[in-house]
Amino acid sequence: MTNIIGVFGAGGFGREVIPLVAEQNAVSSQLPKSSRIVFVVDDAHTDTDINGYEIMTFDDFCAYESVSKQICIAVGDSSARKKIYERVCRKRISLITVTAVDSVRLQSVDIGDGAILCPYTTITSNVKIGKCFHANIYSYVAHDCVIGNFVTFAPGVKCNGNVIIEDDVYIGTGAIIKQGMRNRPLVIGKGSKIEAGSYITKSVEANTTMFGNPAVKMSLSNLRRLRSNN
User: Fold this and answer.
1) How far, in Å, CA of 67 to CA of 207, rounded?
2) Rounded Cα–Cα distance for residues 51 and 57 (Å)
3) Where are the domains of the chain?
């Protein structure tokens, strides 16, 4: 028997994450050395490997006899990630946090299990983040922010200080969240989606899609107004 680490998801993001897992496994004292690293998918795959890494179904991964078994969930959609997380927990498989060697984490930072911090990401100081957080390349979280569970930052997201992001929020590529105030933080409500390139200047209600600079709520009237201005 050997140690095995799975990356759940063999799509584009999974292919970006698995070399980070291999790199972390090679240098970290927190992971077992000489681990077998595989892609994990729900169904049988037409390929036997991707980029030199074996593909294994989740059922086969669960049944694999190993000294140590760990997994990270490299699936961008928060609702799908949550469902996979629940399945992983039922099987009592340990989640790992994947941290690129060139990411930066400063002082008084608390991050839940299963996070993925891609290259050139930064978490500054006095930040609390829930489980299964994804921070894609070149994104950052500034001081005094609180981020919930299953939150996704696409590449280049800029979350400035004194911001609260509730569970299941997706923030698109290049979006900017304006800094809140210490006694009145800016809040992004649960289940909201921030479209790519948006500039968020005020709090966002739950389950709302925002777009534009400055960002407005996605609605038919706002779309018509945007088109007429262009």
Assistant:
1) 42
2) 17
3) 2-96, 99-211
Q: How many helices (H) and strands (E) does the chain have?
A: 4, 25
pLDDT band at 212 (very low <50, low <70, confident <90, very high): very high
Residue 95 in tokens: 């989640």
Residue 204 is classified by DSSP as B
What pTM did the predictor assign? 0.89
pLDDT computed for residue 110 by the predictor: 97
| Helix, strand, coil share (%) of the chain residues, nearest 5 | 20, 35, 45
Could you give the CA distance from residue 169 to residue 182 in angstroms, rounded to a whole number? Answer: 22
Residue 16 φ/ψ, nearest 5 degrees = -75, -30
Closest among 115, 102, 118, 128 to 157, alpha carbons compared:
118
For domain 99-211, is the CATH number 2.40.128.110? no
Ordered alpha helix ranges (H), 33-176? 58-63, 78-90
Q: Partners of 147 in the beta sheet?
A: 129, 165
Tokens of 115: 């996070």
Q: Which residues partner with 129 through β-bridges?
A: 111, 147
Of 111, 79, 112, 73, the C-alpha closest to 93 is 73
Q: Which CATH topology does 2-96 take?
A: Rossmann fold (3.40.50)
**93 against 46, higher pLDDT:** 93
The H or E element spanning position 25 is helix 12-27
Q: Tell me the catalytic residues.
A: 143
pLDDT tens digit sequence for 106-131: 999 999 999 999 999 999 999 999 99
Q: Which helix (H) or strand (E) holds 226?
A: helix 220-229
